[in-house]
Recover the amino acids of this structure.
């Protein structure tokens, strides 16, 4: 039995790299330091992986050799006029690099999952910039942390313990002990309330007021003390809100208004209304005081902002607020990236093509115009005529209109798992799981690059997706060259 | 039928995150995403209970889910469906020039499902919306 | 096996004292040799053309997190300038921050064969090398940013030079770096809480050390480690009116550390940005005269221009506080990225306008410095790409260096106030081709300690640039446009003895190597101390093992072993 340490977890954007994996023979038997998702991945990866490449013949997926699958895929892509190559966030940078070269060769569109996640954040950054840092700065310096439209407890379980309020920093202490006492106090309170509810009747009429939003009239006193403070802002009380010093409940689709209101209050302007987004102006004024009064603040935001009405404008307003705050104190903003290597996908795509996602190579050079060259739009308009999906499941996560057109055309899937998309594939390549069975590089949500290790060997039929893509590229080149020669001669 | 107008929110959950690592075709995954978390008082208003099937309809589609009494209440007028194929079939594909479809804050109607409607498996759901793949064109 | 003969060109090889002599050059197996034996050789006819060593750029931001953040920030910069895919080259985009493939191709077209990335955050070194791997055609190296690193500040504050040196040696190898880079020393740590340092004797909050101590400390570390290049310094107060005093103080503070063999001990980079006189933007003026006077009388300093061109570009430096000020001045979009334990970065798009008194004065300052510093071996041509201008404008700057008329013509089009205050009308000096070869290759290679670069003597790497301009027929002073055109697209660029560019087109894509320094410590210091390792885990949010860049991560690694005194 061997213990492999310093393993990078290939699940979420926190990209924890302190995992310890026990390996016996070629099997992973135990995982230490991981959260629930990480443990699930290392212990349950590729449980439904096909043992061979598959090709659809007469409507059914049948076993095929690697050569056959590669040839069929290369034919599909080389002969398509506008193929899309999508996914990339759940695999290594090296795979994406091969994918970009392939997209360039076949004149396709290469897009990654940020298009349905933090794409709008990227668009905002391109408009107004971004004041950010690596997570260690937060760990050592932050005395105020806001999670806005983000629920780390569920989506990035170790974020708080590794990077924010529960860590020890050079200039700040951990809030772990205070949290334990707060939590037990909260739980006692809830128990008491439940007991009251059983013995009393509470009139439903009270719930009829349209916006019964839970928030204090005044912010908790702990926000004014010089310790690590946490504020959670969300439309519903998440688990993260339970451990925060302060939870602000806001109305859905009102974040833009709230950010702009805060900016106005920061400039000492008077608001003509009593509340914004379900939050009273009084509370907003107090919040501004807290924001300005900290020594180092950071706002982590999630897809709560990118996916609701306003999309990129929500982020823009948030970034602008942070930028304005830097006139008074040090304030940072950071997106909570979901997939473990979506940041890597943006980073590699940007250095090789100049653009972070939605890159259209059909004209022979990179073009970028989200809304036009982004895959959800291309699919909604029914413009693509083939697709290669790598390490992603668009059939599960794209809206119906896009999926309809995706599944109607030739579809190649490279994934270690059977998923919704592979049910509609014409070619399936089972591949090695990056970070478990194949090495590579990934980038954390704060753009710190980390190595992915190979812990166990994949089955013989499962190559790394990088290798599969290189083979498809070689074959596609050969097909195009032949076609070019035929045209020249004929 | 008693229907409630709500705002539909979709998002990640720990269970969904764990479920997807076990595989999209697993029962664990199905349990974690084919559900709709409803505020306890809203559940009463609908005249249904935890575990029963409800239908969520938006202008983009309709889907049957298992109702779950939310432990994150109160949040009347808001329902939460975890990311996944069930949430996707009722989401808006229009990106308004940004590339990003709308997954949160969608106007929806929730009502108890009829006796003939039940929560489909992943394969059944996909088949009903997209048909069977015949072969590459 | 591959043999090459470059026939009959006018060779400028200052490191070997060759000044425009008509001669043949021989290359075999990637190196310059004194004769060829084989019958099969490629012949390049360089008759009537200038032959120089391949260009060497000592300071150009081409790879890494801040460069990439700039690329991401500015899609509008890319739309205007695209590179379609060819059967030999990858596609890409330009302009002020080209994508990586495009960067390599464009440098090669200018006749450059070696480029230094001057600002690598050690924590993010892996990223820098991945981009360098994807930058073809040129040999590269990167300088780790060390002036605000906690592992440097702590021992230096206690006066423990050897301990600091041991750390720097480890960091150089762990990050596969080449030279010690200082940026606004002490100021970046202060910026961690939104502050800055005001001069070199200001104390860095929480660390009880001054910039002077950091600069001197690292200078001494550099000497102990015998690193091939001196410390490479972006001064405190960069971009601030009156900062020429800080620049003078910075150069003075290491005067006594210069060895008797008069090898320079400090390189002050993009000197233009540190040569501002005046109390504010209204009284702003050139401090070039004072700076040049000091450089002329003190051999321990080398410098590079940081020349402004009137164009739209992107500023990007590790100097977080300076970039924030630039944002406040320009109201352009602003990106900031502070890196834990180590350093910072800021990016702001910027346009230099002829009509602006300040910008026009900056333009003048760069040229004044280049013309007033007498020793071409200690003043190099750069633009701090892309800060003062994108590197594609080098030929334009060359024309200003070789021709007084070219300078005058532009001077007549700039802000009247700047024109009246400029020293340029009083300066007749025009660079010769020999001096140009020093300023763009020989001098830079010498300062970097790259023994096989920047010259065409036997044993040198066969990196050769051939420019189609005849020095016997063309008077650069009057025909500067001809010179500019010739340097814009090399007739031939030869890399390791292979023709890679012909008539400004890439004909053979090659990868290039990454150079890095491997300091050899005495056996007692070989292993990183356990204390340091323990502190590492407390400080960083990554594991020690994962921080180190493995050598195989560099596609073509070229380590240089150095014997040290530690």
């Amino acid at each position: 039995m061997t213990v492999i340490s310093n393993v990078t977890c290939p699940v979420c954007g926190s990209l924890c790299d302190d995992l310890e994996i026990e390996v016996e023979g070629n099997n992973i038997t135990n995982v230490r330091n991981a959260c629930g998702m990480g443990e699930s991945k290392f212990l349950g990866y590729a449980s439904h992986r096909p043992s061979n490449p598959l090709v659809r013949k007469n409507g059914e997926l049948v076993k095929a050799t690697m050569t056959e699958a590669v040839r069929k895929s290369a034919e599909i892509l080389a002969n398509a006029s506008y193929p899309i190559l999508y996914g990339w966030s759940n695999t290594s940078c090296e795979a994406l690099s091969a994918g970009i070269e392939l997209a360039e060769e076949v004149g396709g569109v290469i897009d990654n999952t940020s298009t349905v996640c933090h794409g709008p954040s990227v668009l905002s950054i391109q408009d107004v910039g971004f004041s950010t840092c690596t997570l260690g700065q937060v760990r050592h310096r932050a005395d105020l942390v806001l999670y806005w439209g983000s629920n780390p407890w569920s989506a990035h379980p170790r974020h708080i313990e590794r990077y924010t309020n529960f860590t020890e920093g050079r200039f700040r202490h951990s809030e772990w002990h205070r949290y334990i006492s707060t939590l037990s106090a909260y739980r006692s309170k809830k128990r008491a309330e439940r007991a009251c509810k059983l013995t009393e009747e509470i009139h439903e009429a009270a719930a009829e007021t349209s916006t019964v939003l839970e928030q204090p009239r005044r912010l908790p006193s702990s926000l004014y003390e010089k310790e690590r403070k946490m504020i959670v802002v969300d439309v519903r009380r998440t688990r993260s809100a339970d451990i925060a010093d302060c939870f602000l409940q806001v109305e859905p689709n009102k974040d833009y208004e709230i950010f702009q209101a805060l900016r106005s209050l920061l400039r000492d302007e008077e608001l003509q209304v009593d509340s914004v987004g379900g939050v009273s102006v009084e509370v907003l004024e107090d919040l501004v005081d807290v924001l300005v009064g900290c020594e180092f603040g950071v706002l982590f935001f999630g897809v709560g902002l990118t996916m609701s009405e306003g999309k990129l404008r929500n982020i823009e307003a948030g970034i602008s607020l942070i930028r304005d705050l830097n006139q008074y104190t040090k304030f940072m903003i950071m997106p909570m990236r979901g997939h473990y290597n979506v940041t890597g996908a943006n980073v590699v795509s940007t250095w090789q093509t100049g653009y972070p996602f939605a890159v259209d190579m059909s004209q022979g050079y990179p073009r970028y115009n989200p809304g036009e060259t982004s895959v959800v739009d291309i699919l909604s308009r029914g413009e693509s005529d083939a697709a290669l999906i790598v390490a992603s499941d668009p059939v599960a996560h794209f809206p119906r209109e896009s999926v309809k057109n995706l599944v109607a055309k030739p579809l190649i899937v490279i994934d270690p798992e059977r998923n919704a998309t592979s049910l509609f594939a014409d070619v399936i390549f089972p591949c090695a799981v990056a970070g478990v069975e194949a090495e590579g590089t990934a980038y954390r949500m704060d753009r710190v690059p980390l190595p992915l290790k190979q812990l166990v060997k994949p089955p013989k039929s499962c190559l790394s997706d990088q290798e599969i893509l290189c083979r498809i590229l070689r074959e596609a080149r050969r097909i195009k060259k032949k076609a070019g020669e035929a045209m020249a001669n004929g | 039928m008693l229907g409630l107008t709500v705002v539909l929110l979709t998002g990640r959950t720990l269970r969904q995150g764990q479920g997807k690592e076990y595989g999209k075709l697993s029962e664990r995954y199905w349990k974690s995403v084919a559900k709709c978390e409803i505020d306890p008082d809203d559940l009463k208003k609908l005249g249904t209970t935890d575990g029963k099937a409800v239908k969520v309809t938006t202008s983009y589609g309709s889907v049957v889910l298992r109702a779950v009494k939310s432990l994150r209440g109160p949040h009347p007028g808001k329902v939460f469906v975890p990311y996944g194929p069930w949430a996707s079939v009722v989401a808006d594909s229009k990106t308004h020039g940004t590339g990003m479809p709308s997954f949160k804050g969608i106007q929806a109607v929730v009502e108890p499902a009829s006796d003939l409607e039940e929560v489909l498996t992943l394969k059944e759901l996909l088949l009903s919306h997209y048909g069977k793949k015949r072969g590459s064109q | 096996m591959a043999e090459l003969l470059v026939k009959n060109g006018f060779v400028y090889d200052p490191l070997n004292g060759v000044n425009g002599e008509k001669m043949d050059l021989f290359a075999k197996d990637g190196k310059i040799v004194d004769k060829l034996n084989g019958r099969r050789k490629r012949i390049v006819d360089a008759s009537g053309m200038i032959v120089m060593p391949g260009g060497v750029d000592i300071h150009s931001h081409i790879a890494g997190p801040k460069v990439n953040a700039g690329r991401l920030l500015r899609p509008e910069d890319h739309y205007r300038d695209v590179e379609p895919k060819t059967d030999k080259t990858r596609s890409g985009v330009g302009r002020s921050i080209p994508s990586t493939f495009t960067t390599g191709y464009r440098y090669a077209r200018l006749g450059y064969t070696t480029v230094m990335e001057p600002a690598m955050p050690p924590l993010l070194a892996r990223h820098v090398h991945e981009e360098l791997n994807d930058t073809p055609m040129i040999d590269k190296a990167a300088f780790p940013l060390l002036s605000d690193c906690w592992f440097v500040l702590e021992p230096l504050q206690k006066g423990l030079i050897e301990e600091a040196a041991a750390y720097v040696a480890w960091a150089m190898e762990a990050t596969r770096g080449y030279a010690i880079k200082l940026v606004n020393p002490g100021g970046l740590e202060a910026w961690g809480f939104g502050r800055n340092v005001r001069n070199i004797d200001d104390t860095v909050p929480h660390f009880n050390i001054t910039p002077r101590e950091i600069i001197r400390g690292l200078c001494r570390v550099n000497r102990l480690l015998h690193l091939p290049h001196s410390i490479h310094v972006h001064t405190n107060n960069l971009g601030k009116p009156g900062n020429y005093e800080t620049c003078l103080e910075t150069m003075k503070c290491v005067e006594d550390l210069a060895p008797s063999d008069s090898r320079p001990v400090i390189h002050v980079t993009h000197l233009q940005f540190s040569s501002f006189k005046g109390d504010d933007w209204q009284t702003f003026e050139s401090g070039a005269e004072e700076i040049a006077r000091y450089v002329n009388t003190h051999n321990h300093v080398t410098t590079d221009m940081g020349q402004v061109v009137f164009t739209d570009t992107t500023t990007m430096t590790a100097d977080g506080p300076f970039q924030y000020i630039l944002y406040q001045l320009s109201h352009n979009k602003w990106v900031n990225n502070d890196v834990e334990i180590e350093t910072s970065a800021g990016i702001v798009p910027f346009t230099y306008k002829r009509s602006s008194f300040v910008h026009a004065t900056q333009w003048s300052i760069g040229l004044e410095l280049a013309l007033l510093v007498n020793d071409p071996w200690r003043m190099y041509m750069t633009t701090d790409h892309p800060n003062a201008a994108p590197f594609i404008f080098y030929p334009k700057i060359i024309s200003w260096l070789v021709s007084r008329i070219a300078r005058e013509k532009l001077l007549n089009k700039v802000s009247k106030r700047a024109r009246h205050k400029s020293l340029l009308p009083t300066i007749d000096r025009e660079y010769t081709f020999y001096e140009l070869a020093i300023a763009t290759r020989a001098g830079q290679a010498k300062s970097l300690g790259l023994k096989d670069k920047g010259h065409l003597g036997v044993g040198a790497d066969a990196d050769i640039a051939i420019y189609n301009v005849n020095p016997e027929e063309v008077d650069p002073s009057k025909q500067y446009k001809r010179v500019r055109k010739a340097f814009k697209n090399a007739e031939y660029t030869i890399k390791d003895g292979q023709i890679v560019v012909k008539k400004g087109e890439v004909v053979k894509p090659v990868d290039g190597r990454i150079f890095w320094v491997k300091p050899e410590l005495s056996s007692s210091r070989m292993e990183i101390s356990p204390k340091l390792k323990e502190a590492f885990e407390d400080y960083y949010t990554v594991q020690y093992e994962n921080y180190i860049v493995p050598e195989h991560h560099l596609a073509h690694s070229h380590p240089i072993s150095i014997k040290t005194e530690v």
